[in-house]
Amino acid sequence: PGWKPSPEIAARWKKLTAPKELTEEHIQEEFVNHATKTLARSAFNMDDFAAYQASAYSVRDQLIDQWNSTQMYHTTVSPKRVYYLSLEFLIGRSMDNALLNLGIKDRYANAIDKLGFNMEDLVEQETDAALGNGGLGRLAACFMDSLATLDYPAWGYGIRYNYGIFEQSIVDGYQTEHPDYWLTFGNPWEIQRLDITYPVAFGGTVIRSKGASGGFVYTWEPTERVVAVAHDFPIPGFGTKSTINIRLWSSKPSNEFDFASFNAGEYEKSVKEQTDAENITSCLYPNDNHYIGKKLRLKQQYFFVCATLQDIIRRFKKTGEPWSEFPKHVAIQLNDTHPTIGIVELQRILIDEEGLDWDGAWKIVTKVYSYTNHTVLPEALEKWTVPLLKELLPRHMMIIFDINLFFLQSVERRYPGDREKLRRMSIIEEGVPQSVRMAYLAVVCCHTVNGVAELHSDLVQKQLFSEFVEYFGAGRFTNVTNGVTPRRWLHQANPRLSALITKTLKSQHWLKDLSELAKLKQFASDPEFQRKWMEIKASNKKRLAEHIAAHCNVYVNPDAIFDVQCKRIHEYKRQFMNILQVIHRYEELQKMTDEVLAKQVPRVVIFAGKSAPGYYIAKMVIKLINNAANVINYNLRTSKYLQLVFIPNYNVSLAEIIIPASDISQHISTAGTEASGTSNMKFVLNGGLIVGTVDGANIEIGEETGPENIFLFGVLTPEVEDIRHKQTYGTGIKVDPKLDSVVESIRDGTYGQPAIFEPLLHIDTMRKVDACFQNKAEWAKKSILAAASMGKFSSDRSINDYAKNIWHISPLPPPE
Ligand code: 9GP
User: Counting atoms of ligand 1 from 1, which one is nearest the CA of 452?
Assistant: First the structure.
């Protein structure tokens, strides 16, 4: 910038920007100021939404102050920073979270109350920022909260989609999708940075010519150019002044409007370039754990990493240090393979634009990047076809071929003559057309590769990348078990439970060190503590029952067991098995005499979750659940004992209502398929017990709670493959339902526990749950003990693991 303040002006500036004491009066002034000046409203022209906006803008002012001083401090110190690259950030609402993290919620609520508005109502006015599909995107949001709370110098980078994940409604039992245009009324939580833009190019050709030093130089002549515009989302830490940034890019055309075409009457042509450019960041692809080979998706991936790298490099260049120092300032984490093309982009920039040789560039690139794998499901592993990559990013395709050539040459040196091995390990998959295995590219180029739970990391090393582990050594591969932020998922979502914990532990410090929850164990058998604990659960269930009444038109019994399965609908997550179990339960109830029926433990089964719009089987499961609900809920004789609901439009805000209200939640994926799961952690943290398979993070949760405080069932991962094999080759055992004794012997494990019989084990587990639930004191004890064992599953622990073992960064708390 051309302007530099004199020392006197800088001092005046400092005085003027010094934070004012946040009294109730000051909050009211700010609120009214935003209502009248930012929104042009008056006292006679206000409603809850305008009051939400006025509050949001004034909270944002607080955030911006903290954010500015954090960023200025980081710029002065110039520490090593981590850059978390993710195509998804499932943030949800921001106001409540910001108020709580800044520690100003009560003051705001009181101040606003005196102006005639209720803070709880205003919070409900906010639209979710739903820029993600499920676990992967929400994990990124939890990680941002932890990075800020733990004072790490960190940035998140991603895409500012105009349309987030679609909104789901249920029409005649079917999922119906509606666009989520979340920006209709603007977004107070972002700062549009029209001053921060970068060019991004696609297509064209590459010209090879002789450089001054005799080697070849490559010039990329693209055919399409767009511009990336920054939007900043300040993320406040809890109990610290650190406020970090998620920078999301939005695409804009680079050329002016085409007047020549317009004047010639070719209106469509005159705006085509503009709309094409803006389309890049229009929509989030609504697929979870499923890869879609669309050109626009690849454009999104390159667009965001290209802008991000220019931004990172600009920041690095301010240090004036040589390129060799880049890895001392920069760690880049790839959230899944979605940003993997960024590896190639950095190699390209260093060689083609900065003039480094291949080896010099490669040394830097491989010290900077690390990669998190989030799935072993083959249908989710990205592969871009070579023709598509060549068309869109011709120079990158050349570099990928070179990376692969050098890699395979060294594999060949290690295993001479093993052509099969070369074929298996090649980054390029042979076929018509050839394709690029993005996960292999990431493994070859990153210094560290991690899975997201112990079992998953084990499968990553033993199955997915076993030959790479042998080749590179086990040191490149590690595990970082996922976690969730207790600030959003307990303190914010379950304020009464949070208050009880704080009162019992006589401090709020557990919110920064979740392992302190273990101190609650001493109260697990205390009847008074149990009473308070369960009373909070009951009131959360009542609140959910009200939501269900309003959205599903079903009046559920809040005293029944609330049995929840809410997550993306997917075959591997087995909502189908769950609904079969529910139908079985219903049929059993039908057969009972009144006397037996009266002894049954009432249950409300709650499903929620979106299906990818093109996923036929998942959509049929939703339809089946809704049809079954229509039968089950209208049976006057049995509906006292069994109700079934599908709550539409599962999102972060709905999860904040559902999770604190569950007695049990189901995490029943086929062993070896769910990499981690994170909602399992949220449910237990809120005193719900898990019914789950021996999969993902369920296993580690069980290790922490002890087997008596979790309902695990089913087969272990190695057996699953064996069973699949038997089924595929027709040697699986078919069971005639009449053969009760045979079924029983299968149940008791006489013939092992094959996964095809898991529905039976599931039913048995549900019986166990019923029995346990009847002993109220025992149930309360389990609930308390399980929640108290959740210290490990804070995303703070995950982030500290990443920081220490992968990124090698240190906290940098801003000075007071
Ligand atoms: O399916 C996994 C889920 O198990 C995990 O908890 C989450 C966060 O690590 O990532 C999901 N994976 C994906 O969404 C796609 O790889």
Answer: 9
